[in-house]
Design goal:
The protein has twelve helices and eleven strands. With 327 residues, the protein is an alpha/beta fold. It has one domain: Alpha-Beta Barrel (TIM Barrel), CATH 3.20.20.70. The chain has a seven-stranded parallel sheet, covered by helices on one side. Strands 8-9 form a two-stranded antiparallel ribbon. Strands 10-11 form a two-stranded antiparallel ribbon. The protein is globular, with a radius of gyration of 19 Å. The relative contact order is 0.13.
Amino acid sequence: MSKIYGQSMVINDEMKDILSETTPNTQEDLSNSRPIWSLKLGYSCNNDCIFCAVADLRSTQDRTTNEVKHELDLAIANNSWKVTFIGGEPTIRPDIIEVIEYASEIGFEEIKISSNGRKLGDKNFAEQVFNAGSPVMWISVHAHKAEIGDYLSQRPGSFDETIAGIKNILDHDQHLSTNTIILKQNYRFLPEIVDFLADLGVSNARLGFVTAECNAYRNFYLVCPDMREVSPFVCNALDVGKERGLRMTVEAYPFCFIRGHEDCIPNLPYIESRETFRNITADELRRKIRQKGPQCKNCRYNDVCDGIDKKYLEFIPSMLYELQPIY
């Protein structure tokens, strides 16, 4: 399939801050009040996903090794106990082993890496990563077949590399969670994708609706599905996951579209320490980039529901009125 092109989009300074400081939302142990550190290493990546929400920031220079270590030192000084390395793609950094080792040496109790998993398909490299600090791996898997996966990443062979990476992670008994972005190309296959992940041995899986930024904004009608049409496939996928024993979560998707699956809602609101050391609540972040209708004020989940991406509503404003309160 051909590469997708489109008109450039300008990202304002506020959105740059949001994209650089936030990390995907996972269920956290809220009993631990010590801050969690999310560290953006850079935007370089070995994929070129047609829905990438940070593609327009690729020209931004990645942090140097010394800059990363400085940030880690600051985090420890602020009593952080957990760090998540995000990108771009963290594993393509030449210094990633050194960075993981350093984080482990200075006292982080948990190190997490958000990755597409491709480089971890190399057993020697994977062993180096695991030996450096036994990081928790959070791997993006957006398909159950190479034809779809390679098209989405625009990198032939990337799907097989990601799956090899997942197998290496599981073979070494490393903690693993997966992240699947809901797209036009895959939403009808969400139950099959979850079943595929279960066959691989995955035990934690997240489904998240596509964010209409950068490539996804330019390619909106290509990659962004109708939220209502997606609903039965998401619910079916959640049922499959539960039946297979997976811990399932759904994010960036209105709760009223997954009625009966409230047990898949992450533990929110959370408080997470960002690169600026400013504590930010999930509600603050939602107000910046998401929107809900006036009818949502009566919903029992209004305080924690993500609502709908404001950029998505630029294309389909009527979706806001599809939201129905859960009483």
